[in-house]
Design brief:
Elements: H1 2-20, H2 24-36, H3 39-48, E1 57-61, H4 67-76, E2 79-84, H5 87-99, E3 106-111, E4 123-129, H6 139-147, E5 149-160, H7 165-171, H8 178-187, E6 193-201, E7 207-208, E8 211-212, H9 214-224, H10 233-247, E9 252-262
Parallel strand pairs: 1-2, 1-4, 2-3, 4-5
Antiparallel strand pairs: 5-9, 6-9, 7-8
């Protein structure tokens, strides 16, 4: 079963890599806060799990604009490293940390693809929030990431859940979900715990006047790794019909799968 999933993912990753360098990042920015935003959810979860206590170092894989990372570094005084392939986000992270007087907290930076990055530091917390879609089932990359954990450290990896509204109505055929990745990680010998984070989204953010909003199309494009206009028309029609029917009942639920890998070595 997994081999067929891997083949499916391999086909999917090619358009994602092309898109990631294209203009869809502008659409992604527009839909990020309302449909893909996750900073408050993750911040609350980290605090509830006690992972923010004694946080002295943080590595973020694909931090985007880095709002969560900046807040953690500001509030807990931790050092920060990041790997980001898009120059506009590198610039945003550097500018926001400098403006907050935390520029010296950035101890490691990689401006390029994470696959080409070998961390020179070890970190108490590593975050990959909706960035692992580009890497898929890469055991060597997982080992390299886990090797960068300090003793007692945690690697938090967030992927869309099979219970998510977008997955159920637009992404099922992709075959890449938090649950699927969790099964693979277990088979590969990467022990972890799988949690869920939930976020309510107003139906009006997704559908207006019986049609998908630009925000909804942008979020779908991001998660599918393909421009909306590049999705076959029959599939677009099916997605739009599902969204229109479902949002008639009001709010919908985003569900993220959060995989928690822990370095059990003692500090």
């Amino acid at each position: 079963m997994l081999s067929s999933r891997l083949r499916l993912l391999a086909q999917w990753r090619k358009p994602l890599n092309r898109w990631a360098r294209g203009r869809l990042w502008q659409i992604y920015d527009q839909s990020y806060d309302s449909l893909l935003g996750h900073a408050p959810l993750h911040r609350r979860w980290l605090e509830e799990m006690g992972l923010s206590s004694e946080l002295d170092s943080l590595l973020s894989i694909g931090p985007g604009r880095g709002e969560l990372e900046l807040a953690l570094c500001r509030d807990y005084g931790c050092n920060f490293g990041y790997a980001e392939s898009h120059s506009r986000y590198c610039q945003a992270v550097e500018a926001s940390f400098k403006e907050a007087g935390l520029g010296e907290r950035i101890i490691e930076r990689h401006r390029g693809y994470y696959q080409n990055f070998v961390p020179q530091q070890r970190y108490k917390l590593i975050l990959s929030i909706h960035s692992w879609y580009s890497f898929g089932y890469d055991a060597s990359l997982m080992r390299r990431t886990l090797n960068a954990l300090a003793p007692g450290g945690s690697f938090i990896l967030t992927i869309t859940s099979e219970d998510d509204f977008f997955f159920l109505n637009a992404l099922k055929q992709q075959g890449f979900s938090a649950e699927e990745f969790s099964r693979w990680a277990t088979e590969q010998g990467f022990p972890h715990k799988l949690h869920q984070l939930r976020m309510s989204v107003s139906g009006s953010e997704l559908v207006a006047d019986g049609a998908l909003t630009d925000n909804a199309k942008g979020a779908i494009s991001f998660l599918k790794g393909k421009l909306w206009r590049k999705i076959p028309q029959p599939e677009r029609q099916q997605i739009e019909q599902r969204f229109v029917q479902t949002t008639q009942h009001g709010d919908v639920e985003r569900v993220y799968g959060l995989l928690h890998f822990h370095n059990t070595d003692q500090p």
